[in-house]
Design a protein that fits this description.
two-stranded antiparallel ribbon; 9 strands; seven-stranded mixed β-sheet; alpha/beta; globular; 330 residues; Rossmann fold
């Protein structure tokens, strides 16, 4: 979520600038045929997911949903991969190091200077404006294919702080299984992220099996150069795909409500997307990931528990990472 994506920037500066190399490229993990949700513990939640999918794919059921209307929308940060720290935050720091290496004069210019010098105050005092300045400086002004190569290089070389694994391996295995299970039953999966759309598009197919055109996210303003036939992203944010803007992003990209929606507790950014999915004329399913496992992942909650309260009020299904998942990461 762009409004909060750099909440932990001061901590991550110290960790990231010190070093980040890894090796190897990770891919989607396949699932055993006999149990499509093998990383989920047996219980009421797993049964509810399977029951829902079975009834809406049974042509003889009153709850049947035609294939064209089986739309599923998933948040990304904290829903499909870990967000402490945010992966896109790490990418921004990675880009700073690469850009300064190519042009040392950038080291005395902001926001590059703050990253290189581990200046936490620059970002804490600058707030959202400083964060957006860093995103714009590291995510714009280059052709799309060049940016995508930078994203892929990042995922193949950078280690996730505190986990000693590639950033490509902090995806949630139970969620990968859920994506594959839904896909196998005729659902079209869309990622609806608060992160920038181009960043997630650069890796979505490799990690999740989700093609670029099924990614919705925060966007910059685009311009087209007729002389070289290229589209360039300008350093101006056009749409922040978070909170109330997520249903708008869904309408702009898909044109219909999802019947299956999944987000996470942590920043209250997915409440409106899940509520929006409940307005479908078909039976719908809402899933909220609760980060309550300090041993295998992280423990954090919203101060006002807005997402959990919304889940209780609206009858959503809540995933306890601690109790509902046999394992978290592949």
């Amino acid at each position: 979520m762009v409004r909060t994506i750099f909440y932990h920037i001061s901590v991550c500066l110290v960790v990231f600038v010190g070093g980040c190399d890894s090796s190897g490229r990770d891919t989607i993990h396949s699932l055993p045929f006999n149990d499509p949700l093998s990383s989920w513990n047996e219980g009421s939640l797993k049964r509810a997911v399977i029951s829902y999918v079975r009834k809406v794919t049974d042509s003889s059921s009153k709850d049947f949903i035609p294939v064209n209307d089986r739309i599923a929308a998933f948040d990304n940060d904290g829903t499909l991969w870990a967000e402490r720290p945010y992966v896109q935050e790490l990418f921004a720091f990675y880009r700073v190091k690469k850009m300064v290496a190519q042009d040392p004069s950038l080291a005395v210019k902001q926001p590059f200077k703050a990253v290189i010098e581990n200046d936490k105050n620059y970002f804490s005092n600058g707030g959202e404006n400083a964060a957006l300045q860093l995103i714009a400086a590291t995510h714009t002004g280059m052709p799309e294919d060049e940016f995508e190569l930078a994203v892929k290089d990042f995922f193949s070389t950078v280690t996730y702080p505190g986990r000693n694994v590639s950033v490509a391996r902090i995806i949630y295995q139970p969620q990968i299984e859920l994506l594959n299970y839904l896909r196998a039953n005729g659902f079209k999966i869309f990622i609806c992220t608060g992160g920038t759309i181009e960043f997630v598009r650069g890796i979505s197919e490799q990690l999740y099996g989700v093609p670029k055109y099924q990614v919705i996210g925060t966007t910059f303003k685009y311009s087209y150069s007729a002389s070289n036939r290229m589209i360039i992203r300008e350093p101006l944010v056009d749409h922040i795909n978070d909170k109330e803007e997520k249903p708008i992003g869904i309408q702009m990209h898909i044109g219909q409500r999802p019947v299956f929606a999944c987000g996470n507790e942590g920043g209250a950014g997915d409440i409106e997307m899940l509520k929006y999915s409940q307005g479908s004329s078909y039976p719908s399913f809402q899933l909220l990931i609760n980060h309550d496992d300090s041993t295998r992942e992280f423990f954090y909650q919203e101060k006002d528990s807005a997402s959990l309260r919304a889940a209780a009020r609206n009858g959503w299904h809540v995933v306890s990472m601690k109790n509902d998942w046999k394992l978290v990461f592949p």
